[in-house]
## 1
Amino acid sequence: MQYQGLFVGLTTLDFIYLSDRPLPENQKLVAQDYLTVAGGPATNAAVAFNYFENHGKLLTVLGQHPLTELIEQDLEEHSVEIIDLMPEKRDPPPISSIIVTADTGKRSIISINAVKSPANCSISEDLLSEIDIVLIDGHQIEVSLAIAKLAKAKQIPVVIDGGSWKPGLEKVLPFVDYAVCSANFYPPQCQNAADVGKFLQNQGISHIAITNGEQPIQCFAAGESLTVPVFSVKAVDTLGAGDIFHGAFCHYILEQDFTTALSLAAKIASKCCQFFGTRSWLEDSIGIDTV
C-alpha cells in the first residue's frame, strides 16, 4: 500500500567529503570521495519514506537561488514533491559542509539551520488532503504549529524528530503523537533520558523513543519503560542515519505497533550506515533482512 506523508522542516545543500582522517587545524586534506545532495532532517526523512514506494511531500523553504537547482534535481530523482514556503526567496539555501572519517564512519558538520529563513504563512487545510502521516523536524516552528494543529483536528498522526531542543517546540508538543528523539534532545531542566520521557509524557505524548546511535532505543509507551535493540554493523558513514530512521518509522508506524516500527526503522538506519553518503543505500541490492 502506498502512503502519503508530509515532511515539514529544513532543507540544506550538503557537500559531503570522505576522508581517511579528521581534519587537523590549519591543514589541508584531499578527500577520498565526495557527494553533493539535498540534506536536512525532514528532507532525508522524506527520501527514506519514498524508499517504500510511498509519496512524500516536503514543506520547506527553498527559493530560487541557482544553487537550489541541485537540491531540486536530487529530490526529483527520489520522487519527493517540494512545497516551497518562500518561492520568491533569492538568498542561497543553507549549506552544510561535512567530513566523514572513513575508519570510524563518524562525521563532523558545519552548517546553517533555518534560523535565517523562518517562514510564517497561512496554511490551507487542502495541504493535508489525503495525508496519512506528518513529520516535523522543529526547524520551522510557526509553520509546524499550524500543521500540527490541523493534523490533530483531522486525526492524522504527527511525528516529531527531536534532534535537539529548539525554542518554541513547547507550543508544538501538545499536538504530537509520536516523539522520536536523539540522546542530544534536552528540553529545559531535563538532564537524562528519564527526565526527557517524563517531560514529553507531561505534554500528552503517549509514545516516546530516545535513540542513541548503536545503543538500544529507550521507549516510554503505555506507562512502561522498555528498550528496543539496534542492529550492529560496521559503520562506513553515520551521516543522516537518524533522519533515515525517522522516514522509515513514518512508514512502519502506519502498519505496525510502536516497538515493532522502531525495530524495523533501526534496521533501515543500520543498513544506510554501511554506505557512504545519504543516498547510496537506496540503490544497493542488500535486502533489509540481511542487515
## 2
Amino acid sequence: MTDTAYLSNEGRYTIFEFNGTRLKIIAPEPLVKYLKINQFVPEKRYIAVMTDYACFDKPEEEYIDLIPTLHNLLIDPDEFLKPIKKLELRYN
C-alpha cells in the first residue's frame, strides 16, 4: 500500500488516483492542465492547485473539493483520505 495519491486531468475531467481507486471529477471546460500542487492537507479535505485555463493569460489558483465525489460514490472520506501523505501531479 502506498501513501501517495496522484492528480491529473483528461480533457475537462480531473483525475484523482489512490491505491487502485480512480476518481473522475468534472472540471471547468477551459481547463488545459494542472501545473502545480500548492497545498494538500487531507484533514482539510481540499486541494489547492495552479491551473492552466485556455481562457486566462496566466495560471490561476483553483480549489478541488473531493468530499462531494467521495460521498456520491459512498466512500467514507475520512477512511479514504487518512492514509494519503503526499499528492503528486502525474501525466502520462
